[in-house]
Amino acid sequence: MTNRIDAALTVSPAGETALDVRRATVIYRNGHLALKQATFAIPRGVIAGLVGVNGSGKSTLFKSIMGFITLASGEITVMGHPPAKALKRHLVSYVPQSEEVDWNFPVLAEDVVMMGRYGHMGMMRIPRQADKDAVECALERVAMGGLRKRQIGELSGGQRKRVFLARAIAQDGQLILLDEPFTGVDLKTEKQIVTLLRGLRDEGRTILVSTHNLGSVPTFCDMTVLVKGTVMACGPTQEIFTRTNIERAFDGALHQLSWDDNVLAPEAG
Q1: The whole model's pTM is what?
Q2: CATH no. for residue 28?
Q3: Considering its fold, how many domains does the chain have in total?
Q4: Tell me: the pLDDT tens digits for 45-63?
Q5: Which of 35, 55, 87, 230 is the most buried (most CB within 10 A)?
Q6: Domain range spanning residue 20?
Q7: Cα dihedral 7→78→62→221 (10° resolution)
């Protein structure tokens, strides 16, 4: 596979790198090597797809970026800051997988979004008008304002995803991490989410999306990061997302994908 690490480390024309991962290695307490010498960089204002099979290190990478896991070696910076400082400065927002959320917990949709404002509040976490305005704006942006008083567990899968995306928007993070945002949603909701992500990118936010939906990656991801225990390749999607690279990353042919001369053929519709 063509090594794209040097290209990945090239910053944007403005000289701003949103996420810089250098030789990051993670070893769990049981001795499992989850991530080895991972190196890549993402400039500000792009959507990057984090692509790899289950167990390839995508979740480990997300946890490392958020500072939840200590690196055995290497370095990660977000907007020039280490993860702990980036979180303290509210630079990182996270949209979790559905499996990570207790949908039976009695909480309103608007309260979930307000959680994104906690870092902006004082110790008593009493919302100010600015926090309320941010929540209202975020809910309207994801078209969930009319369901703000609904229990989160009563919402559909797509509506839940939009609520958590609204939380990320309300938090005002500059780097937004989304873990499998298209799992369990229909095509209409997927397109709505992609439209929202493009809008955030155009505002200068940086989006890193972990996804198994390979067919959609070339349609909205400016960059692709291929992960398989390390970062195998990183760069512009049109260069990285080839049949050869994807089959190596996934240990074989993916028959559900249609290729045209080593490039993924456009999806119908």
Answers
A1: 0.86
A2: 3.40.50.300
A3: 1
A4: 999 999 998 889 999 999 9
A5: 35
A6: 15-91+208-251
A7: -50
